[in-house]
Amino acid sequence: MRRAGIAAVSAALVVSGTWLNGQASAEKALQIADGMQVTLEYTLTLPDKTVADSTAGQAPFSYVHGGHQIISGLEKALVGLRAGDKKRVTIQAADAYGLYDKTRIITVPKKNVPPEAKVGAMLRSATGQSAKVLEIKGDSVVIDTNHPLAGKDLTFDVNILKVEHPPKATPEKKP
């Protein structure tokens, strides 16, 4: 009788293990597509091989695919990948932060710039736009409003950790 009990428990564990493995396999099988929650690790390198950004030693990065939370070229390159996939992808400047635009170099009155600003300093406007101080001359300041990575091809080494359906919003309770 005792053997039958052990056999039944063993059979149940095998069935449960198969079910759990099947469930894990189904989750791993989810592909990156619009609306999916993606968690990944990445390293971003510039054409001169300088590392511009990385999640190494930090928490992984998560975003909702198709939500315009990452640059368009990278979003396109990740479509179809699954958890466990690794990929190196080079994004052309036009599909990253855009081409460098010389018309975005502007001259502003010095009174509109913080007094401690020096050549090379990065400024941030009230709307969150960044600009680099190129030159200070008399009562004016020359600033570059291009994104710091504009005009650069970017290489991303990505490791997809999770691809899952985003959590469903819980309906608000009404009083």
Looking at this protein, list some descriptive labels:
single chain, 175 residues, alpha+beta, five-stranded antiparallel sheet, four-stranded antiparallel sheet, disordered N terminus
Structural class per helix/strand content?
alpha+beta
Using DSSP, what is the number of strands? 9
* Secondary structure tally, helices: 2
Could you list the spans in which at least 5 consecutive residues all have pLDDT below 50?
Answer: 1-21
- Strand residue percentage: 25-35%
Order of helices and strands: HEEEHEEEEEE
What kind of sheet is the major sheet? 5 strands, antiparallel
What does this structure look like?
By secondary structure, the protein is α+β, with helices and mostly antiparallel strands. The chain has a domain at about 100-145. It is built from two helices and nine strands; from the N terminus they run αβββαββββββ. It has helices spanning about 1-30, 70-80, and strands spanning about 35-45, 50-55, 60-65, 85-90, 105-110, 120-125, 130-135, 140-145, 155-165. Strands 1, 2, 3, 4 and 9 form a five-stranded antiparallel β-sheet that branches. A hairpin with a 2-residue loop joins strand 7 (about 130-135) and strand 8 (about 140-145). The longest helix is centred in the N-terminal third of the chain and has 28 residues, at about 1-30. The termini are far apart. Mean pLDDT is about 85; it is low at about 1-20.
